[in-house]
Amino acid sequence: MSGKGKEEKKEVKRLFFAVDLPGETLVRAGSLIDKFGISPAHVRFVHVNNLHISIKFLGDVGVKTIASLCEKAKEAVSGFGAIRLSIKGMGLFPNHTKPRIVWFGVGGETDKLARLESKLSKNIECLGFPADERPFTPHLTVGRVKSGSARGGLIRLVHNNRELKVGDAPVEVIHLYESRLGLYENRLGLCENRLGPGGAVYTKVESFPLSGAS
Question: I need a labelling partner for 117 at 20 to 30 A (CA). Which of 1, 127, 128, 179 fits?
Answer without folding.
Answer: 179
